Amino acid sequence: MAKKKEISVEKKLRSLFDLQLIDSRIDKIRSVRGELPLEVEDLENEIAGLTSRLDNFNTELEEYHQEIALQKNNIQVAKEEDKKYEANLKNVRNNREYNSIQKEQEYQKLEIELAEKKIKEFQIKSEQKTLSIEEVQGKLDERTDHLNAKNEELNSIMSETEKEEKLLLKKSKEFSENIEEHLIDAYHKIRSNVRNGLAIVPVERGASGGSYFAIPPQTQMEIASRQKIITDEHSGRILVDEKLAEEERDKMSSIFKKSK
C-alpha cells in the first residue's frame, strides 16, 4: 500500500474541518427525518404481530365451524339410527329385544343432546372469536393507515434529501481517505462522545465553539499559527482558528450547493 504524502498541519486541520462540515450537514439531513424511520419500523413490527394474531384467530374460528359441522353431522347420524331402531321395534319378538332397542334409542338421544351441547359451546366460542377478530382487524386497519401515512411522510423527505445525502457520504469518504488514520480515529471517537457530533470547532470570542470556557491567549496564538493540532482541555474537541473556519465554510458551501 502506497504511503500517503506528508502534508502540513494546516492542511490536516483544513481537511478535518471540511470533513466536520460535511458530516454535520449529513447529521442535519438525518435529523430532518428524526424518529420517522424508527416509527415506521415499530409500526411494521406491530402490524406483523397483529397479522399473525389475526391469522391464528381465523384458524381457530375455522376449527370451531368445522366442529359445529361435525356435531351437526353426528346429530343427523343419530337421528337416522333412531329411525332404524324405531322401525325395528315393530318386529321385536320378546322383551329382551325390545329393551335392547330402547337402550340403543336412549343412547342415540344422549348423543344428540351431547352434540347439541357442544354446538352451543362452539357457537359461543365462535361469537367471541369473531368479536376478537373484528377488534384486531380494526386495530390492524388503523395501524396500517398510520404506517401508510408515515411512509408517505418519510418517502417525501427521502426524495428531497436522499440524493444530497448520498453525495455527501461519498464526499465524506473521499475526505477521510486524505486524512491520516489516527486522526480519523480520533475524530470519530470525539464525535461519538459529544452530544452535537462536533469534533472540530473554531475558537469564537476567546472560547471553543459552543463552550463558555476561555482559552488562554497563548493557546489561541498557537491555534492561529496552525503548527500543531490542539485540543480543548474541557471537551476534548480539536480546535481551529476562526479565520480558517470561515475560509473552509465558504469553500464547502459551493460543494453543498452542487450536492442538492
Structural write-up:
- There is one protein chain.
- By secondary structure, the protein is mainly alpha-helical.
- It has 2 domains: 9-32 and 180-259, no CATH class; 36-161.
- The chain contains 6 helices and 4 strands.
- The chain starts with 8 loop residues before the first helix and ends with a helix.
- 12% of the residues are buried.
Which labels suit this protein?
mainly alpha; 2 domains; 4-stranded mixed beta sheet; 6 helices
Task: Detail the topology: elements first, then pairings.
Blueprint: H1 9-33, H2 36-88, H3 95-177, H4 181-193, E1 200-204, E2 207-208, H5 217-225, E3 230-231, E4 238-240, H6 242-259
Parallel strand pairs: 1-4
Antiparallel strand pairs: 1-2, 3-4
Helix pairs in contact: 1-3, 1-6, 2-3
| Main β-sheet description | 4 strands, mixed
SSE class: mainly alpha
What is the gyration radius calculated from CA atoms?
39 Å
Mean pLDDT: 90
- Strand content of the residues, in percent? under 5%
Q: What gross morphology would you assign? A: rod-shaped
Poorly predicted spans: none
Element order, helices and strands?
HHHHEEHEEH
* DSSP summary: helix tally: 6
Please give the alpha-carbon distance between the first and last residues. Answer: 35 Å
Please estimate the helix content. over 70%
Strand tally? 4
